[in-house]
Design brief:
CATH architecture of one domain: Roll
Radius of gyration: 19 Å
Strand content: 15-25%
Protein name: Acyl-coenzyme A thioesterase THEM4
CATH superfamily of one domain: Hotdog Thioesterase
Bound molecules: decanoyl-CoA
Organism: Rhodococcus ruber BKS 20-38
EC number: 3.1.2.2
CATH topology of one domain: Thiol Ester Dehydrase, Chain A
CATH class of one domain: Alpha Beta
Helix content: 25-40%
Structural class: alpha+beta
Strand order of the largest sheet: 1-2-3-5-6-7-4
Number of helices: 4
Catalytic activity: (5Z,8Z,11Z,14Z)-eicosatetraenoyl-CoA + H2O = (5Z,8Z,11Z,14Z)-eicosatetraenoate + CoA + H(+); tetradecanoyl-CoA + H2O = tetradecanoate + CoA + H(+); dodecanoyl-CoA + H2O = dodecanoate + CoA + H(+); (9Z)-octadecenoyl-CoA + H2O = (9Z)-octadecenoate + CoA + H(+)
Shape: globular
Largest sheet: 7 strands, antiparallel
Number of strands: 7
GO molecular function, one term: hydrolase activity
């Protein structure tokens, strides 16, 4: 991501949406349907939902998509074509079925914030969010917070503290904020809290100012 092309707290208004909003486009609708399938597969009655037929139909859909897939190198170029917000990342991407997807806003105090409700595909302990999923979400949110703060880098270190189990099936507030820049070192913090303010996860990230070239 080129920061110069991304909204920052210095140039954009409080409440600027920093993630790619789902559109009424076939790819977004198909991805939302795939997301529903992943969730429903975990919820459905194992013995009574004709899963043989489901497997056949889903394989037929996968065959169709694979038949129409270009070479990976070509697809990567296409994916990274253009500037601005990605549509394919695993946290906010409306084109990625494993993304919840989380929508993030930039706030005038320099932080970013979003609310998401996670369901069974993200489960770790019974009824709770998997710790790796929390870390994935916060790593990405800190990356977006860096861009909103005007400085981007790659994660070198993500120290994660799990304060209490993070509940599934209820709104979670996710935040991130760039706190300091020291040469190439960018330090960023973030958290996951319940809607009534209980701290579940907090992170401190060290990012190093470095850009991986886009595929061409
Ligand atoms: C709107 C955009 C939204 C996008 C959000 C996306 C967020 C996604 C975030 C990611 O997932 S990034 C992918 C996960 N991270 C990686 O794959 C990084 C892999 N590691 C590397 O590429 C390099 O190790 C790294 C860029 C982190 C550093 O390598 P460099 O060769 O560029 O730096 P160098 O090793 O010279 O270190 C620079 C300084 O940082 C320090 N440093 C580097 N890694 C460190 C570390 N792990 N812990 C502590 N300090 C570290 C290092 O000691 C040194 O300090 P000093 O300048 O004081 O000497």
């Amino acid at each position: 991501m080129k920061v110069g092309t991304h909204p920052t707290a210095a140039t954009h208004a409080h409440g600027t949406v920093l993630t790619s909003a789902p559109q009424d486009a076939p790819v977004d609708r198909a991805t939302a349907a795939a997301r529903r399938v992943v969730d429903a597969m975990l919820r459905t009655d194992r013995g009574n939902a004709n899963l043989d037929r489901v497997a056949e139909e889903l394989n037929s859909i996968a065959d169709h998509l694979e038949e129409h897939a270009p070479e990976v190198a070509e697809r990567l170029i296409d994916m990274w074509n253009g500037e601005g917000v990605t549509r394919h990342d695993p946290v906010t991407g409306p084109e990625n079925a494993i993304a919840p997807p989380l929508v993030l806003e930039g706030l005038e105090d320099g932080s970013v914030r979003g609310t998401v409700t996670l369901t069974m595909p993200y489960q770790g302990p019974p009824g709770c969010v998997h710790g790796g999923v929390s870390a994935l979400i916060l790593d990405h949110v800190l990356g977006v917070a860096n861009a909103w703060g005007g400085k981007s880098g790659m994660t070198a270190k993500l120290e994660t503290n799990y304060h209490r189990p993070t509940p599934l099936f209820e709104p979670l507030v996710i935040t991130g904020r760039l706190v300091s820049v020291d040469g190439r070192k960018i330090r960023t913090v973030g958290s996951i809290t319940t809607a009534d303010g209980q701290l579940c996860v907090s992170v401190e990230g060290l990012f190093i100012d470095k850009t991986v070239p886009r595929p061409r």
